[in-house]
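#dry-run=false #mode=assembly
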Amino acid sequence: MRITFSPLLRMAITLGLCLGLGEARADIYVIANANIADEQISKQQIADLYLGRTRTSPAGDYITLLDQSDSQPVRERFFRQMTNMSLPQVNAYWARLTFTGRQAPPQTKSNDLMVIQAVSRTPGSIGYVGSVPSDAQVRVILHLHE
Amino acid sequence: MRKSLLLFLAFLVCADVTQAEDLTLSGFGTLGYSHDNRDRIGFMRNTTQPVDEGSNSSLLSDSTLGVQLNYKPNQQFEAVIQAVARDKKNVSVGNSFEWAFVAWHPNDAIDLRAGRMGVDMFLIADYRNVGFAQPWVRPPTEFYGWIPLFSINGVDAAYNFHVGDTRWRIKTQFGNSATDIPLDANNTFRFKANDARNISVLAEQGAWQFKAGYSVFTAGSNPDTLTPIKSGLANIAAGAPIAAIRREASSLNNDLWLSGSTIRYINVGAAYDDGTWLMQSELAHITSESRLSPSGNAAYATLGRRFNSLTPYVSLARFKPSQDATQAVNNWSVLGATAVSAQTAAVAAFNNFRIDQSTVTLGMRWDINSRVALKTQWDRSHIGSRGYGLWQVNNLVDGNNSQHVDLLSVSLDFVF
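#status=ok
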């Protein structure tokens, strides 16, 4: 039996797929270089890292943090989910850490692809992206659903 | 030498822009404007600012530009330099580098630093220049305007640990500091703080932050302007024909010194920020062996609430002096004009540094975007008689009156 779709139905399916994809994009993937010992890191531990409260993973590895630029919507969603802070609050918080010399700010990458590339080639690094990473050197250590 | 330094700095900046991942360039700034409604006194944000009592408004008092370079070759070592341009009497390349230090983090719990660093006193002394990180246009002057230390040349150590979900940080600093404080239009006093030591304990839990600290240092210099006054007083104390005047001159002369005196601060503070409400309050007890440095109790409390990008706030602040104002006791005119001017100058010198004031503040912060905020603020200060230590004023003419001053300020704060 051959199934045929009317053009209208095809449009609806396409639209549905796009919406579905859009929903998938609303997820956030916290990714780590494959050399990091921890299989999973809890939301609280990731929040502590991104608020400069710790420099190491639960297994004791020094972590190199990667951040995204303010222009990427994923940054606002990430910090809202992790810390319940708005971007101005996050930036004011980090200004205190940076300009008191307590912590250097994380390296900022301008999009998901660059975060994945950097995590892939930097041992001990952690980043976050809004799309499913497909890089053998990169592991998802925390998956946040919105 | 200077050329190679410039080339080196240019190299650092270029290296950062192009590729180097271990260098981070960041910065902060404020474009501020303030206007007071009194013709004969001038506003200053802190005591390092140039004396200009005649002006009502200033674009300089709150304006700041800071640039910081972090070099982090690995996870355990870090080098940081921070250059800040702000309104102060003496500007040089040396004092513009407010910080230049190396840090060593041997493990996650310990931070060790050496070089020139921010003074970690009270809740926010080490980021008092960074407007974007604060709710107000400027930190309350009753609490932060008189601190004579900005950066410290020395070492510090911090120990971080947690008990349950409370994070603790114990930190101590040791070093020396020097700050240029203008006395009048022509004279500047290099205030030296020797053997400055401070210890602080910080506890953070959820939305709360508590900090307690103790600081002590020895003043290491006297203002040059004291020398002629003191020799005049010494002559009168030795040779005046009236015993009461000899006693007064001797007493003024004995008290008129700063170098070698010990100055101590004890402070506690609390801050709360749950994302919607924010609260911050501090208390400090200041003691000084010398009457040429303020002593008393300082306090402020701030409450704010965020409505999306708008944060209205209200604040109260007070500095209550523990020393009485100095007044002339006897009439020295029988000894001639020179004697009278020595007496007047000595009395003014004591009262110049005395602070007696309170302020009510209403303000609004508007976060224009994630890195730029516009603030506007109205302060009404009540200044007590002979308590103008936080204002630019001709103490001989106007220092005896108590009065209200209204100050309107607007600032644009940013980080990059």
